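Weekly structure sync, notes
Attendees: PL, DS, HV (note-taker this week)

Item 1: Ribosomal RNA small subunit methyltransferase G
DS walked through the input record. Source organism listed as Moritella yayanosii. Sequence as pasted into the shared doc:
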Amino acid sequence: MINRLEALLAQTSLVVTDTQKQQLVALVTLLHKWNKAYNLTSIRDPENMLIKHIMDSLVVSPYLEGERFIDVGTGPGLPGLPLAIMNPDKEFVLLDSLGKRIRFVTQAVHELKLTNVTPVQSRVEKYHPEIKFDGVLSRAFASLEDMLHWCKHLPKPDGLFYALKGVKPTGEIKTLNTKFKLEVAHKLTVPELEGERHLIVMSEIK
Ligand SMILES: C[S@@+](CC[C@H](N)C(=O)[O-])C[C@H]1O[C@@H](n2cnc3c(N)ncnc32)[C@H](O)[C@@H]1O
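Item 1 (cont.): predicted structure, written out as tokens:
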């Protein structure tokens, strides 16, 4: 699988060390193994997991600004685990309300020896950390409006919200609550993934 990962990475400008490649492959292997018993993702085949989960998460990496992030509704650690592997100098809280998903994330953190990830089982509305975040991330979590509403207590005053989406959510952007504004919408290219991907970056208006 490492050859396949290297071929996919070669189609990007991402610079990934051998250790990081091994961790990414180990993550796919673990997800594939746990998925049989715990139904963590509808994508069951490791090759598809590499493209639709790992590469889809990794291409967000160059756009992260800051040191401390939370991935809300992380499910089995997506995009948070690939991003944490890619950015060992940044801290990631991976939050989900479902126990089986956070148990998987905890196991992955242990097996991959990740020291920059804290798994948290909680509903996002009820999670009030002492230290706020530079960025609030989500993929396949909620509409932009719901994400901003449920997560508005999480970023630092100048922190950003990042939502990874399919087709550009023009309607959702137009109807953003007047307290928030669109910073930028990046069109993402995920090697060998058909269909559009967008990273919507938003901030609160002060
Ligand atoms: C469709 S899954 C997406 C999982 C992952 N981000 C991905 O891209 O594969 C949405 C996740 O959000 C979680 N979730 C939904 N509402 C939540 C809330 N209010 N607080 C915390 N987690 C929530 C669900 O348990 C589920 O794991």
